[in-house]
Amino acid sequence: MKSFLKNVLANIVAIVLLFVVFFFFFIMMLVFSAMGNDKSVVIKKNSILTINLKTNIIDSPTEEQVGLFNINNQNKNILLYDALEAINKAKTDDNIKGISIETDNLNAGVTQIDDLRNAIEDFKKSGKFVYAYGNAVSQSAYYLGSVADQYYLNPSGMIELKGLATEVTFFKDFADKYGIGIEVIRHGKFKSAVEPFLRNDISPENKEQLSTLLNDLWKNTSAKMAGSRKIDSTQFKTVVDSLYGMIPELGIQYKLADKLIQKTQYDEIIKAKLSLKEKEKLNKISLANYISSYSDDDKSGEKVAVLYASGSINNGDGYNDINSEKYIKYIKDLQDDDKVKAVVFRINSPGGSANASDEILFELQQLKKKKPLVVSFGDYAASGGYYIAMAADKIYSEPNTLTGSIGVFGVIPYYKDIANKNGIRSDIVATNANSQYYSALNGVSPYGVSLITRSVEGTYKRFVHFVTQNRKQTFEQIDSVGGGRVWSGTRAKQIGLVDELGTLNDAVKFAAQKAGLKSYNVASYPKKMSPFEQIFQDLNEDGISARIIKNKIGKANYEILQQITDKKLKSEVKMEMPYQIKIE
Known about the structure:
Elements: H1 2-37, E1 47-52, E2 55-58, E3 76-79, H2 80-91, E4 96-102, H3 110-124, E5 129-137, H4 139-145, E6 150-159, H5 172-177, E7 181-187, H6 195-198, H7 204-228, H8 233-241, H9 248-253, E8 259-260, H10 263-273, E9 283-286, H11 287-292, E10 303-310, E11 313-314, E12 322-323, H12 324-336, E13 340-349, E14 351-353, H13 354-368, E15 373-382, H14 384-387, E16 394-397, E17 402-404, E18 408-414, H15 416-421, E19 438-439, E20 443-444, H16 446-471, H17 475-481, E21 486-488, H18 489-494, E22 500-501, H19 504-514, E23 521-525, H20 531-538, H21 541-553, H22 555-565, E24 574-576
Parallel strand pairs: 1-4, 1-9, 2-3, 4-5, 5-6, 6-8, 10-13, 10-23, 11-12, 13-15, 15-16, 15-17, 16-22
Antiparallel strand pairs: 7-18, 14-24, 17-21, 19-20
Helix pairs in contact: 2-3, 3-4, 12-13, 16-17, 21-22
């Protein structure tokens, strides 16, 4: 018996020691990595700024993932604002002679690509060249790459140019088949987030808004691609409808690309453009390294703060997404920081908790009393994401921003039928008439339904009230464009839901002007977590399981699972958009 215990203890000690050694080497690896990243980057003459496969454009510091579960991720995460500033700086940098776009799949949203395209168009005014190369090119990557003076394609490559589509999945028959009851309460015929539980097909209202939205987005993006490639709009439609980009030779014939060449030949073309000798090395510098070459410049003095709010809106204090407790602290800190003279609130959110949205809006209203507050919309500013913008002095939207969705809903699942079919039932003993107004087995009581309906209607009226105040319109005017309907940024400007169509940079300039600043620095909030902070955040039980599941099933599927399983997200009134649209 003693021998057995000794063996067990020896194995336990060995495992602990192994873990300690592994953790030590892991920490040392991070330290050396950080030391390596501190090396200053020197920009040589005849350099080419390169947007490549390792470039991830993110909208917020909270989207950046390092830490324990992303140690092998070699992609560089770059804030959109930093990327735009880098391209603008390269325009007048004598050492940068051109831009090379070398990406087949671009990790960036549609409004982010719009901003990058606009920045590169402005870069071209300097007289410097922009070339692009692709292999198997996604639609989003081509949308960016088509801005180039010359587009080169691999002889066995393809361009997936196909237009936009959305596929809505319905669960009503599934729920009926397996005895799952779903109580749905909503305000707004366009609030289609709950449709999958109510119908087996798209409602006429949802089909109308989806069609309008997709056509608005495609009109903007297709016109830019056709214009850059000098293709007639009618012919461009034929090219897209026929998927000609999938065949390399047809891509050349219909002017989607200029020439079929290998990557080595592409590099030789750039060397010739720079008049480099055969043995001279082509010096390409990534966006991330270029930003590093000047990002340590002095950041003291008066500041315009950009507070990024990206993801779903929830109660709580987590770092990722928009968690109310955390954001209330950020907002109060900015309010009290004397060096911050104006704040730009960058929103990229489809919404979420009505309660959390209301808390954040209140704190922003207090901030506005002290300092100019300008809002900039990214890919999404819908439902709760639009609600929290209602404290702004001015709202900037991108043309392709999904905007509005002024509506409220609640979804309450219960499992009475499936439980009964399997011999499970329950009795209730309570002290008051509605102590058990909701039960997972018995659903919602009639009185509970009426009460939640009142809550949904009251929340909708409060939503519209704040919109009427900010947009200076009547309840009837806002209600007529509300009802849960989602608009493109272009249409949102036309109907008065936003003030201007413009970029994050435009919002920053206006905020500085409103604060009377002639010289200022731009500071990003929240601050990025260090690798060590992210490691310790990863090491809690919920964080580990969440990241493992998310890596296995993907972010989009994980968000659906989270809606069903997360206690914090259940049984509350929601302000949320039903879908996401990407140019893939």
